[in-house]
Each structure stands twice: as structure tokens, then as C-alpha cells.
Design brief:
Number of helices: 8
Largest sheet: 5 strands, parallel
Strand content: 15-25%
Helix content: 40-55%
Number of strands: 12
Radius of gyration: 20 Å
Order of helices and strands: EHEHEHEHEHEEEEHEHHEE
Amino acid sequence: MKAGRTVVVVEDDEAIGRLLDRALTSNGYQTFWSRTGRAGLALARREQAEVVLLDLGLPDADGVDLARRLRSDLPSLLLVMLTARGEEIDIVSGLDAGADDYLVKPFSLTVLLARLRAHLRSRPAPQHDGPVVIADLTVDTAARRCRLGTGELVLRPKEYELLETLALNAGTAVSREDLMATVWDENWFGSTKTLDVTIASLRRQLEAAATRTGTPPERVPSVVTLRGHGYRLDPPVVD
């Protein structure tokens, strides 16, 4: 099972590359970093990248040509160009080559992350083939059914959708914003306390189902609160 959205960073500047790698990883993305265009293209192909952050000023490849090749090889790719070239003609060339967005250096990490979230909300997450199995928890995404141990886990619709989202990203941090956009709606205007209440209910359901089915606690995944960020579903640690 793939954890989080897969992002390939193609950036030859060491400081910027490390900064992007840390920021993306800490926000729940599965991140790969390449310092050259040729290696970045190979990496994006191998990992079937969903997002590429592409520096145009690479030492071994023309960024615009590389963007065209990425767009040809990975048609559904979210391609964001990062460059010091801020002239209108450069932006138009980049967008015409297949970029979905364009940020001029120096840029704000907060803005970059917000733009990624906005773009990804309109793109369906990659489909998982078959049920997701984490220790004694099974989430059948096709049937929208869950089992814990020997019994069915009966959940309300939002509880199920939260569990499915966390299970598809097991072991990876999922932000409050992404959970609200995925489970409720990107245009939801109510309090985000709704998320906390539903998480608390989901935890109770898991505990009750474990007791009812005799499932040992060490075989039940746990929903971990990440203060100031969101939640993560941790597979149990089995010796």
C-alpha cells in the first residue's frame, strides 16, 4: 500500500531541496528528491509520481523540455514549476509545456503546501486494489465494509470515510484540512470540531468491536492525534 501522495522533487539547489523534502514529508507526502533532470524523470516514472515539483534551472536538462516529457509519460501528473524566472514569457512557456502551476523563487512554503492541497482536492486519490488489511482490521473500500477480528465493524458514514482515508494512508500524517476536504467537503463552513467528535466516536467503535470480538489490543490499529496538524492511523507494533 502506498503511503500518502507521491511527490518527486527535482531541484539541484541543496538547501532548497532539503527544505522541500523535510516540509513535504512532515505534511504526509511520500517524497523523493533528485538533483538532476535525467534522474528526476526516471524517478517520476519508476514511482508513478502523482506530483512533481520541477526546478527549471537544472544543470543537465532544459526544464521546459523535461516538463513536456513528464506530461507525456504521466498524463494525470500534477506538475508545479519552481523557478527564479519570473518574466511573463517564462510563465507562459512553462504552463504551455504542461505545468499546472508556477511558483517564482523565493516562494513561501505555506503557500506551496496550500496550493498542493487545493490542486489535489480536485483529483481523486489513487485507487487501492482490494481490501486494506492492517493487522486484524480490514477495510473493504469497494463494499464500504469493515471487519475487526472475527466480526463486522458497523460505522456511520462519516466514521467509515474517516477510517478509510486514514487506512489508505496508514502510518502517514493526514492534516485536518485534508481530512475535512476528503470526508466532508472542501466548501464545508461548519466547525472543524466535527472532525474531533467523529474521531472520538471512531475510537470508541474500535474499542467496543475489539471487546466484542475478543481481538487483542495489540492487533488493533490506533488513531493517533498529531497536535497542531491532524491524525495518523498507526499499525500495531507486533514483536
